[in-house]
Amino acid sequence: MNKKQLRWLPVWICGLILIASCTAGESSYDQEQPFTLIMIPDTQNYLDYRHQKDEGYSLDGSSLFIQQMEYIAQRSSDISFVASVGDVWQHYVRHSDHAHSQRGLYGNEIDPRVLPEKTKGIEIPKAVEGYRLISEAGIPFGVAPGNHDYDATWSVTLPENNQRVAHVGGLDAFRSAFGSDTDFFKGKDWYLDGYNGGSSSAQVFEAGGYRFLHFAFEMHASDQVLNWAQSIIDSNPGLPTIISTHEFIDPQGERKAYPGVDLSLADPDYHNNPEQIWNKFIRKNDQVFLVLCGHRIGQALRVDENDFGHKVYQMLADYQGRGQAGLDAGAEKTPDGGIVGLGDGWLRELNFYLGDESEPRIEVKTFSTWYKKYSAEVDEYAQWYRSLEQPQMTDVEFLLSEEFVLDLANFHDRFSRQPND
C-alpha cells in the first residue's frame, strides 16, 4: 500500500469503528433529532448550454440539475442546510475585469469560454430556477463562487519564472444571482451578512439542538475576506462553524491549489492559497470543525488538529467528470475516447447524529438523484468512475471513500447546546 492509500486508512477505520465519546451524564442531548446537510458539488457541466438537447446533446443536462434541486426541496423536513461549493455555471461574461486592470492584471487574449449571451441567457437563469426551488421550500443555503462563476478569465505571466497561470476577476454576474440583495437572501433572518455584496457570505441555521454558523468563501479568499469572517465569528462566539469554498484540498488530500489556477500566484495581495487560509484563519478558530470544497475532480478527506487540539474535517467532492448518464441516453464518446462529463446527479449527504449520547457523528453518503441510489447500491460504481477519479485505489477503497463516518468526539463539550425557547 502506498502513502496515498495510507492517507485514507483513518477514514476507513472511522467508518467501521466509532469511538464512544460521551459519558452517561450527557443524556440532555439524547432527544435531539438527526438532520441532514446537503453538499452540492460543481454543477457547471449540467448547466453548460452545450449539454442540452437544443444543442444536439443526448439529454438536457440541466434536467439533472433541476432534479437535484427538486429532491432537496422535497426533503425540506429533514434537510436543514444546503452548501454549494461553486462552479455553478460554466462560461464567463467578460474578457477582463476593470479592478484587476487598474492593478496591471490585464486580460490580453480572446478566450472561447467567454460567452455572455449564453451565460446570461441560459446558464445563470437555469441556476436561479434551481435554487429558487430550495428557497421556496424554506431551506437555508449558501453558495461559494468557483472560478467559473467569476465574470472574466485570462492568463497571467508570472515575472519571476515566466510561468503562465489562469486568473479570474469580477463577480457582478454572481452577485446578480446570489448577492446579498437578491430575493434569496434579503430580509432572511438566517442570512447574517455578505462581504462585497455577497461575494462571500455568512448564514446560520438551527438543527440537532445547536445553532450553526456557515461561511461561503469566494475562491482563495483574501485577507480582507478572512478579516470580515473573523468579525462574524467574534460576534457569534461558540457556534459550530462550517466553511464552504471552491478549492481547499486536492484528490490526494493535500492542501494545494491547482498549479494552473492558483489565484494567489497572480494576485497575492487579494488571494490566499488553501494552506494560507488554514494557517491564517481556520486553525486559529476553534469554532471551525468542517470545511467543504470542490474544483478538483474526485473525492478526499483530510483530518487535522487545530491549535486547540480539536479535529477539523476537510472534505472534497467533485463529480463533474462523470458522464454515464449521457452514455445511457445515447451520447457518443469524444474523438479521443473520452466521456462528456455531467455529474450523473451525485451529491453528498452529511447526516448529523448529535442526540446519541454515545456516538455524536456525521454519516456521509453519496447519492445520485438521477439513478436514485446511493453509491454502495450501484454495482457498477467503481467500474464507471474509479479510473477517472482515483486510479490508484482498489474498488473497495474507492467505495469506502464515498460512504464513511466522521466521529464528532467532544462535540458536546466543544460547543454549547442551543437553549430551548
Please give a handful of descriptors for the protein shown.
27% helix, globular, 421 residues, seven-stranded mixed sheet, 23% strand, alpha/beta
Description of the structure:
With 421 residues, the chain is of the alpha/beta class. Helix content is 27%, strand content 23%. It is built from 14 helices and 16 strands. The strands form 3 sheets. Strands 1, 2, 3, 13, 14, 15 and 16 form a 7-stranded mixed sheet that branches. A 7-stranded mixed sheet has the order 6-7-8-9-10-12-11, with helices on one face. Strand 6 and strand 7 (200-207) form a beta hairpin. Helix 4 runs parallel beside helix 6 (116-136). The longest helix has 21 residues, at 116-136. The chain is globular, with a radius of gyration of 21 Å.
Question: What is the end-to-end distance?
Answer: 53 Å
Rg computed from alpha carbons, rounded to a whole number of angstroms: 21 Å
Q: Tell me the strand percentage band.
A: 15-25%
Order of helices and strands: HHEHHEHHEEEHEEEHEHHEEEHEEEHHEH
Mean pLDDT: 90
Helix content range = 25-40%
The 3D shape can be described as globular
* Secondary structure category: alpha/beta
Quaternary organization: single chain
Low-confidence stretches: 1-31
How many E strands? Answer: 16
Number of helices: 14
Main sheet properties: 7 strands, mixed
Task: Please outline what is shown here.
Strands 1, 2, 3, 13, 14, 15 and 16 form a seven-stranded mixed beta sheet that branches. A seven-stranded mixed beta sheet has the order 6-7-8-9-10-12-11, with helices on one face. A two-stranded antiparallel ribbon has the order 4-5. It has helices spanning 3-6, 9-16, 44-47, 61-74, 98-102, 116-136, 172-178, 223-235, 263-266, 274-282, 324-328, 381-389, 395-400, 411-414, and strands spanning 35-40, 79-84, 141-143, 152-157, 164-169, 191-195, 200-207, 210-217, 241-245, 288-293, 298-305, 311-318, 346-353, 361-368, 373-374, 404-407.
